[in-house]
Amino acid sequence: MTRAIVMREPGGPEVLRVEHVDVGDPAPTQVRLRHTAVGVNFHDIYVRSGLYKTLPLPGIPGLESVGIVEAVGQRVDSVAVGDRVGCLSLGYGAYAERRLADADTLIALPDSIDDRTAAATLLRGLTARMLVHDVHRLGPGMTVLVHAAAGGVGRLVCQWARELGATVIGTVGSEAKARSARASGCEHVVLYRTEDFVARVRAITGGSGVDVAYDSVGRDTFMGSMACLAPLGHLVNFGQSSGPVEPIAMSLLFQKSNSVTRPNVFHYIADPVRRDAMAAALFDALTAGVLTPGAIHAYPFEEVGRAQRDMAERATAGAVILTF
Length: 324
Known about the structure:
Layout: E1 2-7, E2 16-21, E3 30-40, H1 42-49, E4 64-72, E5 84-88, E6 98-102, E7 106-108, H2 115-135, E8 143-146, H3 154-163, E9 167-172, H4 175-183, E10 188-191, H5 197-204, E11 210-215, H6 222-228, E12 229-237, H7 251-254, E13 259-261, H8 265-268, H9 272-288, E14 296-300, H10 304-312, E15 319-323
Parallel strand pairs: 8-9, 8-11, 9-10, 11-12, 12-13, 14-15
Antiparallel strand pairs: 1-2, 3-4, 3-6, 3-15, 4-5, 5-7
Helix pairs in contact: 2-3, 2-9, 5-6
């Protein structure tokens, strides 16, 4: 038996309850992991609230974890007992002390990356790599807008974009987060609670707009992000922390020959070869100091409800993890 956070109905943070569950032995293509840290993501909040109905109930939420391999199935040869690994799975199950996981969802961790850093950056870092390299490859001379620039993914996108030579405009909600955004490579920072970010972006770019807008906020910023685009500009909507985006008329894109994408990182890492190449680039960037996770807000496993509440209320600047 092991402790797990079990969700039996959608709702507020109170629906996340600690229960004892049976883990059992791994199937031939599975491993049993003992977790050392678990990543908390906005996706988890959407699942808990019922916005995403992707977790069969009752179920154990969580997409991302780091741990030690305790046992392996008969047909597993990619990892061994005692290996440190990260686990990313759309099958959920990360909010637990121990779990069974398919071996093909595991990513070997280098010694240079500690468990907390891995839990704080693995999914976010792969998402950032996808955004700046695969969805829209950045380079010198480009100008980008990054919403939630001090957040878990936002700060990594800013850092990587700056390293690739782009000029970065970031939006944040406070002076403290503005300092974090500047430290992460933002040349220009907009305090969206007191400033009109569309007007500021137009002023900063001399009216030309940005090549790419990375928008994880969704409903509250989407149309403004569209207005910030230059001709041929690309809006990348990869989250909806303020709520889902309403449908738009395709003719809106025609006005400046713009494009919009809604990428899912799990599609980009479905191919193990591609995933491992993305992970290698992430680990190299972390080891070289190109990327830094910044503040890691660690909560005891039992306080997952508080962790999600703080994240939803923007009380955290950086990554959120659960520890044991």
